[in-house]
């Protein structure tokens, strides 16, 4: 299916403001998802905000069939609306290839993202930004790696450079002495418990994680605990895999999640995984993570490096798009 209102694109460039091209948008969805009464509401939600959008529908899990129509539309933005069992590693790889073949050069041709969640309601929540002041500015962060704390008004870091080390900027921790300290070389309690406390206290705008990871968990640095997905939320576990704190059922403030140094955390393999839990219960509005076993790839670290290279200059979407060019 192809629906498109033609607009002239003569004499315009990517950064030309307020033109039909600058607002052009395509919604890509499977016939199964479009015909689902609940998931159809996600498509309708997008059309309410992008009334001139192109709608492209594919069947039999073959997203490549919309190639010629997407090439003809050549939009600036593309949203792939997927149920959680539709957007696994193979689908993501197909999207990457598709988005580099809309013209004759090898570079990415539009800014694109996958919209999903444990259910349609969660998917809509992840893209409903009307109640969020714009632009969304990152002021508070929880960090598992060496992101410069000076970029934030407040930040708590679980060090992946030295075992059991931690530090905070305007966000200290009682090390057991009764006094709040800015850094330490021993955790006074299970790191996963500290994470749960800081998530609630700080209401961070950004989560950056490193360490071992999988579709259903992310480990604290140095494997001294983990955050495990279960049906009712995120379970903080100690290094013996015993509960370290009450289950985190939700975290409602809007935030960005960058598991840039974790294997597999970005791989959506069903309705109960890290992707769906964070995009739903944990309040995440944007997420960029690996669908394979790796920790060093440019896709993650490159996006972060470009995004923070000139603070405030690029959105996360800009950084993800530009570093691929």
Q: Mind explaining what this structure looks like?
A:
- With 325 residues, the protein is of the alpha/beta class.
- The chain folds into 2 domains: 2-127, Rossmann fold, CATH 3.40.50; 140-324, no CATH class.
- The chain contains 9 helices and 18 strands.
- The chain has helices at 31-34, 40-49, 67-73, 89-98, 120-127, 191-202, 274-279, 298-309, 316-324, and strands at 2-3, 25-30, 54-58, 77-81, 111-115, 140-143, 154-158, 166-169, 173-174, 180-181, 183-184, 206-210, 213-214, 217-219, 226-230, 233-237, 255-261, 284-287.
- The strands form 4 sheets. It has a 7-stranded mixed β-sheet with strand order 11-8-7-6-12-17-18, with helices on both faces. Strands 1-3-2-4-5 form a 5-stranded mixed β-sheet, sandwiched between helices. A 4-stranded antiparallel β-sheet has the order 13-14-15-16, covered by helices on one side.
- Helix 8 (298-309) packs across helix 9 (316-324).
- Characterize the biggest β-sheet: 7 strands, mixed
**Spatial sequence of strands, sheet with the most strands:** 11-8-7-6-12-17-18
Number of helices: 9
**Strand/helix succession:** EEHHEHEHEHEEEEEEHEEEEEEHEHH
Structure classification: alpha/beta
Q: What value does the Rg take, in angstroms?
A: 20 Å
Q: How many structural domains are formed by the residues?
A: 2
Total beta-strand segments: 18
Low-pLDDT runs: 1-12
* Residue-averaged pLDDT: 91
Helix content: 10-25%
| Separation of the first and last Cα atoms | 30 Å
- Fraction in beta strands: 15-25%
Which outline best applies? Answer: globular
């Amino acid at each position: 299916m192809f629906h498109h209102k033609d607009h002239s694109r003569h004499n315009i460039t990517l950064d030309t403001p307020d033109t039909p091209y600058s607002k052009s948008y395509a919604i890509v969805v499977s016939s199964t998802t479009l015909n689902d009464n609940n998931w159809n509401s996600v498509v309708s939600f997008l059309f309410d905000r992008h009334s001139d959008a192109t709608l492209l529908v594919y069947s039999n899990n073959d997203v490549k069939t919309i190639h010629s129509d997407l090439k003809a539309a050549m939009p600036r933005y593309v949203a792939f609306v997927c149920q959680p069992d539709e957007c696994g590693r193979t689908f993501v790889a197909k999207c990457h290839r598709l988005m580099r073949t809309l013209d004759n050069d090898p570079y990415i041709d539009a800014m694109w993202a996958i919209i999903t969640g444990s259910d349609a309601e969660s998917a809509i929540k992840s893209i409903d930004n009307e109640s969020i002041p714009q632009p969304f500015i990152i002021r508070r962060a929880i960090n598992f790696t060496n992101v410069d704390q000076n970029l934030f008004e407040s930040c708590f870091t679980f060090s992946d450079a030295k075992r059991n080390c931690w530090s905070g900027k305007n966000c200290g921790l009682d090390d057991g002495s009764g006094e709040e300290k800015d850094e330490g070389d021993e955790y006074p309690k299970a790191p996963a418990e500290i994470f749960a406390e800081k998530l609630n206290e700080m209401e961070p705008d950004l989560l950056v994680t490193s360490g071992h990871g999988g579709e259903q968990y992310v480990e604290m640095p140095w494997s001294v605990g983990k955050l495990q997905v279960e049906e009712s939320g995120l379970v903080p576990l100690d290094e013996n895999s015993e509960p370290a704190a009450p289950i985190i059922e939700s975290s409602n403030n809007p935030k960005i999640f960058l598991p840039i140094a974790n294997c597999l955390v970005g791989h959506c393999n069903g309705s109960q995984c890290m992707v769906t839990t964070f995009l739903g219960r944990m309040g995440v509005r944007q997420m960029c993570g690996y669908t394979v076993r790796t920790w060093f790839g440019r896709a993650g670290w490159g996006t972060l490096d470009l995004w923070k290279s000139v603070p405030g200059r690029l959105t996360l979407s800009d950084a993800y798009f530009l570093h691929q060019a």
